[in-house]
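Hi, here's the filled form for the chain we discussed.

Project: internal
Contact: R.S.
Residues: 263
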Amino acid sequence: MIALLARLRDTARCHAEHRARVRRIEAGVLVLIVLSVLVLMADSVPEVHRRHGPLLSVLEWTFTALFTMEYLLRLWLLRRPWRYARSFFGVVDLLSILPVFLALLMPGLHVLADVRLLRLLRLFRILQLPFYLEETRHLRQALVRARRSILVFIGVMVLLLVLLGTVMFLVEGPRNGFNSIPTGVYWAAVTMSTTGYGDLTPQTALGRFITGCAILLGYGIIAFPTGLLGAEIFAGVLQDRDATATGCRCSCHRRPPAAPPDP
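And the returned structure, exactly as it came back:
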């Protein structure tokens, strides 16, 4: 019995050392990812590219070679390589190295290599942050529960944009820059989102009045999806707290479905 316990202790210690070693390797890979993205961003600056273009190119190919070796090693060492290759992180790992090689045929595609920044999502798994994983689950469930309301909201927004764009096209006309209904829809989207680029401005009194109404409407609409998601996230947190307090996670603690509207 003592020998068995000692063997189990040694096995657990080996597993702990292996996990720690894997974490250090993953942390090193994350550092390389950040450095490679910084090099890619610096290479996109014309002045920096003129001065240090060759050096940045060598660094980019070095990072690509390291990431390619890492990807191939994962396929070789894993028990189920195709499962990893078809997973989210497997696809991201492949997309992070393909643009550099495709740039040999189509120059300029290497800038798409910044997709490798998505690999930083591994940080949550490496550090084993259950709090953030729990919050991610709450957000996902809130989006699923509110998906119908969000779709209705998007549909209403599209109708409002088309309506306001059409009205502004009729009120302002081509003489004031509203050459078509799609141009008016673009103006409505920019105005209701309170962005206001200023490239299209109404010149008539009626057009300015409609613009003011659209801005006020936009302020009210922007807060709508935030309230939906906030309510759903709060409901999910309360549901989990009730389930934890009672020790039950069955369907009796799930929020009942909404009743169908009366005919």
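Let me know if anything looks off before we file it.
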